[in-house]
Amino acid sequence: MAMSWERARVKIALVLVLLATVVAVVLIVQPFAGSGAAWKGARADPSRLERLVRGLVGLGPRDGEPGQARAADWIRAQLAGLPVQEQRYSARGGTYRNLFVRLGPSDERRVVIGAHYDARGPHPGADDNASGTAALIELARMLASRPPSVAVELAFYSNEESGLLGSAAHAADARGALAMISLEMLGCFDQPQRFPFAPLKLLYPAHGDYIVVVGRFQDFALVRSIKRALRGNGAAVESIDAPEAVPGVGNSDHRSFWQKGVRAAMVTDTAWYRNPRYHTARDTPETLDYARMARIVDGIAAWASTF
Ligand SMILES: [Zn+2]
Which residues of 92-103 are buried (b: 16+ CB within 10 A; e: fewer)? Predict the structure, then answer.
């Protein structure tokens, strides 16, 4: 006996809802990204990462002009032997600096990997963002010993916490930028994971022991390539492609490049969604997991060298 039209329509509607849900989950979570190639040079060193984080935090506050100047001088000293360029700009009644290291061919066409070295208020900012800064210094050492075939620009940004001022000054001339990655908090892996929306609990692990690649839907291919590279180098990794309006998705220097039409993504431990020490006096070096950080640095080196 033939199914009634009513029942057939309900069935078709259910199948369509199910299909739409599956497509949405695949677009948001990218569950089948696979693994990329392993980094072929010397691997990132956890003890060096720890020393760098402790060194930067040990300088004192990094919010105002004197603190950020101290930090910039210290970063230059860590990069001794590499060609470092500076960009100075006026803001907040003072002069601030971005630092750059270019590796690989001298070409305007380049990928940008950035991390902010300033910190919120008087706080130590070990995870936010001495961790990303240390990763970038280690990346400079690794990529200098094995230059990538596409130009890579490592960018140390000032004033992220004051409205992305450093990265905005850099992105003001984004000509030739093929893609941008912001390294934003790479060290917290010992906490429960929280989410901007409850349904995301169904899509991601409950314990926050993984790094997350964050982009918009139009950054899908970029997010996928970073995720593959991280996974191929031993990092536990998840990803999310979501609209910029989702709280947190655009909260770092990658947004300065989105605003210039450059595809960009953030690599992060998810900040306040995981780290209870975020923007407090308790964001200290001993709370970070340097072994996991090192595998992330390897993954980013692999990504940059196979772009
Ligand atoms: Zn930050």
Answer: eeeebbbbbbbb
Q: How far is the CA of 273 from the centre of ligand 1 (A)?
A: 13
Is residue 247 a contact partner of residue 196, using CB atoms and an 8 Å limit?
yes
CA of 185 relative to ligand 1 center, distance in Å: 6
* Distance of CA 35 from the midpoint of ligand 1 (Å): 28
What is the Å distance from ligand 1's center to 269 Cα? 11
The pLDDT of residue 298 is: 98
Q: How many residues are there in the chain?
A: 307
Domains in the chain, CATH or no CATH each: 34-305 (3.40.630.10)
Ligand 1 midpoint to CA 103 (Å):
25
Tokens of 155: 């960018």
10, 16 Cβ separation under 8 angstroms:
no
pLDDT in tens, 219-261: 999 999 999 999 999 999 999 999 999 999 999 999 999 999 9
Contact present, 260 and 174 (Cβ < 8 Å): yes
Could you give the CA distance from residue 71 to residue 162 in angstroms, rounded to a whole number?
16
* Single-letter residue type at 34: G
Of 214, 218, 178, 181, nearest in space to 195 by CA: 214
116: CA distance to ligand 1 center in Å?
Answer: 7
Distance between Cα 284 and ligand 1 center (Å) = 14
pLDDT under 70: residue ranges of the chain: 1-3
- Does the reported pTM lie above 0.85? yes
Alpha helix stretches (DSSP H) within 30-156: 46-57, 65-78, 131-145
Residues less than 5 Å from ion ligand 1, measured at CB: 128-129
